Amino acid sequence: MYRYDEFDQQLVNERVAQFSGQVARRLTGELTEDEFKPLRLMNGVYLQLHAYMLRIAIPYGTLSSKQLRMLAHIGRKYDRGYGHFTTRQNLQFNWPALKDVPDILKDLASVEMHCIQTSGNCIRNVTSDQYAGAAKNELEDPRIVSEIIRQWSTFHPEFSYLPRKFKIAVSGTPDDRAAIRVHDIGIQIVQNGQGEIGYEIYVGGGLGRTPMIGKKISGFVPKADLLAYLEAIMRVYNMYGRRDNIYKARIKILVHEIGVEEMQRQVEAEFAEIRKSGTLHLPEEEIARIEAYFQPPAYEDLPDESTELNKAVVADPAFANWVKSNVAQHKVPGYAIVNISLKPIGGVPGDCTSDQMDAIADIAEKFSFDELRVTHEQNLTLAHVRKKDLYAVYEALKAHDLATANIGLITDQIACPGLDYCALANARSIPLAQQISERFADIERQHEIGELKINTSGCINACGHHHVGHIGILGVDKKGVEYYQVTLGGAADEKTAIGDIVGRAFTEDEIVDAIETIVTTYIGIRKDGERFIDTYRRVGVDPFKESLYETH
Amino acid sequence: MKLIRNGEFVEDNFTTVGDEDALPEGPAIVSLERWQAERETLRARNAPIGVKLQSGQEPSPIAEDLDHIDVVALEFPVYRNGRAYSYARLLRERYGYKGEVRAVGNVLRDQFQFMIRCGFDALEVADNITPEIWAENVGSFSLFYQPAADGKETVLSLRQRLATRAREKATA
Amino acid sequence: MAQHTRKGAQFQALTANRLSDGIVVYLTREDRWSESLQDADVAEGKEAGEALLARAAPSVEANEVVEPYLFEVSLEDESVRAVSVRETIRQAGPTVRRDLGKQAELAGVHR
User: Which of A90, A475, C33, C64 suits A434 as a labelling partner, its CA being 20 to 30 A distant?
Assistant: First the structure.
């Protein structure tokens, strides 16, 4: 993975000094809250329902064991012994004191981490595929370009006061695990007819109160020109994005209002000018320097089949289930990708205790080249595990309640913090996810239902990605009481779709039954081997509508 | 309000005039609308002239006139509105403007360095800003990842120089 | 300022977050800030509510608390209850972590 050089480190250190000064000025009263708020937000410090919240950047979701151990330490020393992994592949602490934040930042800087641009109207942490470097059909490791973008976007003087926040995601495989079509900019790594690697660019995707799917504005941007092209998009957005209404300020509204052709025309015109100046041309030498950090680890020469694995699968049915749902194919024979579920039955999606973090760090060090990933579905991934070690990894995870065999299944839900933590939320999300998880706890039943993604958000801001859940749940507030609105048919993969609202909202007491009704309806009408989303695409909303509302 | 020009706290010799006001004898800043309506008269004047662009008024309409304009003042209606960062870069990098680019309006200390990087050389700041505060904030960062209007060397260029030096040492 | 009360609310209390650590606090009769809703001064009627809100100003000025606002409460059996789910959670702690927050630390917390 990428390691800081002296320049990267110095910049982060300078940021720690700057923000520490700002905190000190706030605590002595030299800064008022009005003056301080935008500054703390630029550094990922929010004021939430019960306390401050600190969001730590995990660039494109890649972490070393050492970094994860530091997060565990911070959780123990400054927080309440746990953290929360988010859909942006970041980590949030829910209880830090403002006065401790400078010390936390120093600790983070010591392991090449920071909170830079984890909030505010700037270019946020670039997200990517958790299988980067391990996926079979990958054209190029997406973390290379993600790191290049990270550096270019860090403290960008022109783009730190954009109309609104700005999110970029990169995918290096045709099957999209990074949800690039619901980002402000989505980058798909592609190959042209000459065999050159370049980038297909999508713009104007997003969730929130006006969900939109990103539109393609370029089929192929050459490597050397990527930053010039991105700068062109950003400049058009910075100059013409709406600033009169916070709800219309994202780039998706600009693209929607002027149309994708006009957006493309403006971006191309700006790109031509920037390209002419040559200042953002990416030299091959620098690409190679960054590429070198993402070289494949020292894989062993192994047979693809592992007798140890085959024996264990036969001997331990629970392990067999785990392999079936949580283990994915690796590009190298004899290796596998292991997904660690942070969705234990009845647990809080994405939460991880400091003790669990330490345990995972040890497992990653021992079995997966000292490195791990955070997924946008709020799980963790060990990217390179020998098949013959899978049972040992499983056992080690199980000892820390980390071996739930539910990746991609109905209990592997995305949920935002909701009204239990968030000052913006209208309703709780986590308790709902917990109740659904308990209702469908039976592992055999989960496997029988098959792939099904339930995403829950506690308000219209859609941090729980409800629009793109196969089943989406949105919490709304009606006169101080929580209600839940259901959408069906959303997807965040290469066939991205925004879910359809199924009908009137359900009460807290009705919602879990409603989910069960949807599942039962699906089972009743699915064809052999048809996933929920495929059935929905075939039959549409009506059968579900009928079964949900006929008895009410 | 105080004016900082090229890092020095200076007296503002320009008067910003309303569209209905009579022009003063000395240096004056007028709106884009007035510039466009009275371009010939304003260009014929002997005193320096400036044009103020509001947020939403990009600099391209005055690109041809820039040789006759001494100051382009770019307004930040609120600090959160960052359009003028792009305008400043366009003035410097696209149109090659050599005159004064002045930030006016809601200018926060935490933005000084970004503004300078984007090509502003004059900033209208709040009265409580002192030379110490200026110095502290304009130098918050000593390294820069991206090229901008100030021509500062980027981290990328530093890396390349280091690599070249290392190669030379190795072959020497 | 956040709006978490209701027009026509009969009883209101005043809450804020402590600047240094962000913890939720309530303004007491003695103009101190308590972590417990049960210590909160309760204003009856619109005018008394406005007067209560005005009493937050010195603490904001002194950089003791941030983001003060009024919210609706009810009085039952000598006990102060938050009316909305949001404020009930705020005076207790996360409903999904009963081991954390005021519900684990203080007496008189409502769930």
Answer: A90
Delimit the domains of chain C by residue range: 11-105
How many CB atoms are located within 10 Å of the residue A168 CB? 26
Do residue B69 and residue B147 come from a single domain? no
Q: Is some CB atom of chain A closer than 8 A to the CB atom of B161? A: no
* Contact (Cβ atoms closer than 8 angstroms) between residue A123 and residue A166: yes
pLDDT in tens, C38-57: 999 999 999 999 999 999 99
Residues 6+ apart with CB under 8 A from A347: A434, A437
- Same-domain pairing of B135 and B158: no
Phi, psi for residue A93 in degrees, rounded to 5 = -105, 140
In a domain, A483, yes or no: yes
Nearest-angstrom CA–CA distance, B33 and A73: 60
| Parent domain of A70 | 6-109
- Characterize A210-240 residue by residue with b for buried, 16 or more Cβ atoms within 10 angstroms of its Cβ, and e for exposed: ebbbbbebbeebebbbbbbbbbbbbbbbbbb
- With an 8 Å Cβ cutoff, are C67 and A47 in contact? yes
| Nearest residue of chain A to residue C83 (CA atoms) | A480
User: What CA–CA distance (Å, rounded) separates A104 from A156?
Assistant: 24
Rounded Cα distance between A49 and B89, Å, is 41
pLDDT, mean of each 10-residue run, chain A (552 residues): 96 96 94 90 95 98 98 98 96 98 98 97 97 97 98 98 98 96 98 97 96 98 98 98 96 98 98 96 95 97 97 97 97 98 97 98 98 97 98 98 98 97 94 97 96 96 96 92 95 95 96 97 96 97 95 53
